[in-house]
Design brief:
The mean pLDDT is 94. With 268 residues, the chain is α+β, with helices and mostly antiparallel strands. Strands 7, 8, 9, 10, 11, 12, 13 and 14 form an 8-stranded antiparallel beta sheet that branches. Strands 2-1-3-5-4-6 form a 6-stranded mixed beta sheet, sandwiched between helices. The N and C termini lie far apart (63 Å). Helix content is 18%, strand content 28%. The protein contains 6 helices and 14 strands. It folds into 2 domains: 145 residues, Rossmann fold (3-Layer(aba) Sandwich); 99 residues, Elongation Factor Tu (Ef-tu), domain 3 (Beta Barrel), CATH 2.40.30. Helix 1 runs parallel beside helix 4. Strand 8 and strand 9 form a beta hairpin. Belongs to the SAM hydrolase / SAM-dependent halogenase family. This is SAM-dependent chlorinase/fluorinase.
Length: 268
Amino acid sequence: MSQKIVITLLTDFGIEDGYVASLKGVILGLCPEAALVDISHSVPPQDVRAGAFLLSTVYRDFPKGTIHLAVVDPGVGTERRGLALQTGSYQFVGPDNGLFSLVIEGKQDLQAYSLENPVYWRPEVSNTFHGRDIFAPVAAHLACGVPIDLLGPSCTPIVADWVSPSKNETGLRGEVIYIDHFGNCITNVTAEHIEGFIDRKQCIVRVAQRMIPGISKTYAEAAEGEAGEVLALVGSSGHLEIAVNRGSAAKNLKIPVGEPIIIYKQQL
């Protein structure tokens, strides 16, 4: 018995309307044996950074050969490209607007193609719904075995400037790129940026006019587990996040996406 090809879906479409169903209907019409898995359809509208973060945290958890269809596309209908990407054992389809930045950053085996071959699109393409008319059929054709290089010419995809923090002799400067369900404020600073450069116990994390001493290991570590205490830690995603023990950092500290964060190497 042949293994089903998994196609995941990540969008900002919500679930109240029929947009997600349209994607699934198009895919199953072309490749009925595909296994469809929803990552999330609750990405904040037009929030490319949030979509990029969510995709980066889960794509490796799927079987090799999985196709990840991601559509957070505020530039739909403009001259922005559509992309098909291959890196490692996974393929990705969606708009070229930075949505795949965290997936492709630093990848040496990346293959990227601009979606310019209409043979693999729907016959009629709406100016406002490329998810249904271009990206979904492309993902379905890939699942059915179409070689990725038939989809269009090779290209160099966009990597957004918010992907990595800046570094100098005093420490790191980054920003909040995602706020999760619990109100944890997740940044573009990763464990890899910290290790060997910053002492987690001796540093100071500054965000929203708060100075947080050190980087904790768990949510309960701050003030011996006292509820309401603010802390910084590296979460399960591998990213530094600002949290409030048993509370919401985003609400308590009024931290939005894009809020700057500075990690000083030593206490001031």
